[in-house]
Amino acid sequence: MPRISASCDASATIHGNLYSGQIWPQFRPTNSASVSVMRILLYALILVVTAAGSAQAQFRIGIGGGQRATTPIAVLEFEPDNSASAQHARDFTKVVRQNLQHSGTFTLVNSKDHPQTAGEFLTQPDWRGWKDAGAKVVLAGNVSVSGSTIQATYHLYYARSRKHKLSEAAEVSLNKWRDLAHFVSDVVHLTIAGIDGHYASQIVFIAEDGSATSRVKRLAIMDQDGHNIRYLSDGSSIVLTPRFSPDGDEITYTEINSGRVRVILRHLVTGQQEVLETAEGTSTFSPRFSPDGRGIVYSLALNGNTDIYYMDLQTRARERLTMDASAETSPSISPDGRKVAFESDRTSGQQIYVLDRSTGSVRRISIQDRARYATPVWSPDGQWIAFTRIKDGEFAIGVMRPDGSTEQILATGYVVESPTWSPNSTALAFARQERQTGDGTVKTRIYAVDLFEQREWSLPTTGEASDPAWSPRLAQN
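and the corresponding C-alpha cells:
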C-alpha cells in the first residue's frame, strides 16, 4: 500500500498534547517521512480547525429550545488490503459507525445511499453523487492485518466543498483493534466538531447475578460501547456506587460486608485498595471524587443524622459540609470546586440543592410540583446537572442548568436512575429496570442517550448491570 503521511488544509493547525501525551503510545506512524507525522501519531495529535466559523457552525450546542445542527457523515466500508483483513475491515467499520451514530454530533448517511465504495471514492470521487446522498463529510480508508498488527489508513473530506481535511495512518497490535476504531472515531469527532469525542473512555458499573433474594454484585469495567468487560471483584461483598477519579486511575465505591459499611479507594492499575471511611452501626455511602482529585465527598450518618462530608485524601481530615437536621446524600462537586449539588428531604420531600462552599448558603434548584429529585451529577463542562426525577409514578432521567432552569427530560421508564456523564458532556449513561413479559420479573441494564438528538441505545453487557459511572477521557486500565 502507498505510504500515507498526515496532511491537512491551510486553515488547520496541529496542536500537541491533546491526549496528555501518554494515553495512546501504542499508536505509531507507519512511515518516517517527517517529524510532524511521528508526533501526530505517537502522541495522537489531532487536526483542530482553527477557522472556528466552519467547525463551530456545525456544532451548536443547544437543549431545551436551543439550536444545534448535526452533521451528515458517510462512513464508507473500509477496504481490506488482503483476505486476512476482510473481517477486520468490516468489524472496524461497524465500530466507527456505531460510535459516530451515538455521538449526537453526526447523522449517518445510509450506506444504501452511498454512490461509491471507499476505493472508488479515493480514486475518483463522485462529488455530485455524494451531494445527492446528503453527505457533508465523507470518511474512507483501508485496513490491513499483518501478523499480530493491524493498520488503518483514513481520509476525511468535506463533500460539498470538495475539501480534503485529513489523511493519517495508525497501527496497533491486533488484539487492540477496537481501540484503533475508537481512536479514529475520536479523530473524526475532534476534526469536524471541534471538541473531543468520548469513544476512548470506559464505564465502571455493578454487574448483578442471582435471584432477587440472593443477589451477587461485582465491580466491573468495560469500554464505553459495552465491550471488553473485566471484573474487579469476586462478589463476596456487596458493592455500590463506583466512581472514577479525575485521571481515571482510581475508583471509589461503597462496600458492605458482614454488616460493616466502608468507603473504598481502589487503584485500577495495581488493584490495591484502601479503606477511606468505616461506619460501624451507622452508614456511609455515595462517595465521589472532587474535580481536582485531592478529596472525596460522601454521605455519613453520625448520631442519627446524615450529612455531606469532604475528606482530604492526603491527610484523611474530615470536613462536614451540611448542617441540617434532615438527610443529605448523593453529593457532586462542580468542576470549579466551588459548589456541591446534593439531594435532601429538608423541604417538600426529596429535592436537589446546591451548596456554595465559600459562603455556606444552600439553594433548592428542583422546582417541579409533585416531583421528587435525586442523584444530581454535575456535567464535566459545568453547564448542566443531571438528575433522576420521580413524578406521578414515572421515573425519568433529565438535566437542568445549575440554577434549576431549562429542565429537560431525556429518558423515561419503569425505573430509570443513576445518570452519569460522558467526559465531553454530550451524553448520559444510566440504569434502566424493565419488567419482563410473562413472569413479571425485573431486569436491569445500562443505557445511554445523547443530549441533543435524544437517541438512546443499550450497552451489551453479558448480564444485568446497574449504577454506571463514565470515566474521564482515555482511562486505559
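(Above: one complete record from the training split.) The chain is about 15% helix and 45% strand.
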